Amino acid sequence: MNKRERLDLIRELESELGYGRFVHTMYVSCTASNLAMQHGADLAKAELAGLLHDCAKCMNLGKMLKMCAKADVQLSEIEKKSVALLHSKAGAVLAADKYGVSDEDILNSIRYHTTGRPGMSLLEKIIFVSDYIEPGRESAPNLPLVRKLAYENMDDCVLQILEDTLRYLKTTDSEVDPMTQKTFEYYREFVKERKSYE
Description:
Layout (H helix, E strand, L loop, with lengths): L2 H14 L2 H21 L3 H10 L8 H10 L12 H15 L6 H8 L10 H12 L9 H8 L3 H18 L6 H20 L1
Helix pairs in contact: 2-3, 2-7, 3-6, 3-7, 4-5, 5-6, 6-7, 7-9, 8-9, 9-10
């Protein structure tokens, strides 16, 4: 993405997203770029995935459902009822169809930035983490710790986010998406096994 394309995309997103969502998007893109530099990921991919991660967030649930059905996207029952979850999968469809993204790693980073998934790529982890720690976030639990971990070890950071998210969802009696639970169990075992060899 050259400078002109980047500016055109930012202008388009600014016109389509609400002001707060646009500011969040810019924060996530910047945070993702910083984490890409820290961990040796592709900077351009991280920036683009950050810019597009919430591209479908302002759509209503019905429109997202139609978009996903047309693209033959498999959805869980909880995703079918939740804009907060569904916008990730709808966003991956929109990024491909409207913005011409064909890179599967970028699309997966958008697709799983809310729930995560077992065995995420480095870029997927970067977008998952950036969405959680960007500078505008204030109320998430353990933010100072999570932000520190983001620059030290991505797997430890992902696990901490998942633990905190599941703990919070339990306190609110919210339904937990199965993918979030699977991702937590995967990274809990992955980190435990890694530490046993350290």
